[in-house]
Amino acid sequence: MIRSTWTWTIAVATSRWSIWSRRTALEFEDGSWLWESSAELAALIHETHPDIAIGGACFPEVHPEAPSLEADLAYLKTKVDNGVSFLITQLFFDNQLYFDFIPAARAAGIDVPIIPGIMPMTGFKQIAKISELCEATIPDRLASAMEALDGDERAEFELGVAYATQQCSDLLRRGAPGIHLYALNRSPATRAILGALHVARPWEEPEPAGAA
After folding, report:
1. Could you count the other beta carbons within 10 Å of the beta carbon of residue 205?
2. 0.85 cut: is pTM over it?
3. Which listed residue, of 32, 52, 88, 159, carries a Cα 20 to 30 Å from 124's Cα?
4. Could you tell me the domains of the chain?
């Protein structure tokens, strides 16, 4: 279930239609983009390189530019129809958002694996800013616990790792097909979470009904 691997992945990310390779987006100097949509890009890659696995982004709390969940899922279905073979969610801090999103996506005809994306809250101010930018909500209990630490960076790191580990354990126990960790180039949190999961092995526990 959990392995350390190096892979080349072309990620059809948000509706800004980007491919990232070594942090370089395919954008011209005048600000224009080579493709009109991520769905168009997925179709091109799938047509010309059918052996490449294409990953797409999805948004359990709805893409900020989408007028509704239904519209967001309809566009997501187009990406999948055009060749996206797996999806990674935007960060979230309430697992119920993921487990509510899964049946909605399945009902919309989206049948590819949907991998939850988890960002350990290793620094409250930084992650709160990222969450604000992408319109991801932070549960009150987590925000209150972080605020009570009064800026203690070590304590924030430890709480963030513990919370993310609980998230991952619950997701894997309830049938998520894997975990994508947003590491932000900070390996200690990722190593700590993976170490705890390897010991607990929640994916080996009985899978509850209604899992993803």
Report:
1. 12
2. no
3. 88
4. 10-204 (3.20.20.220)
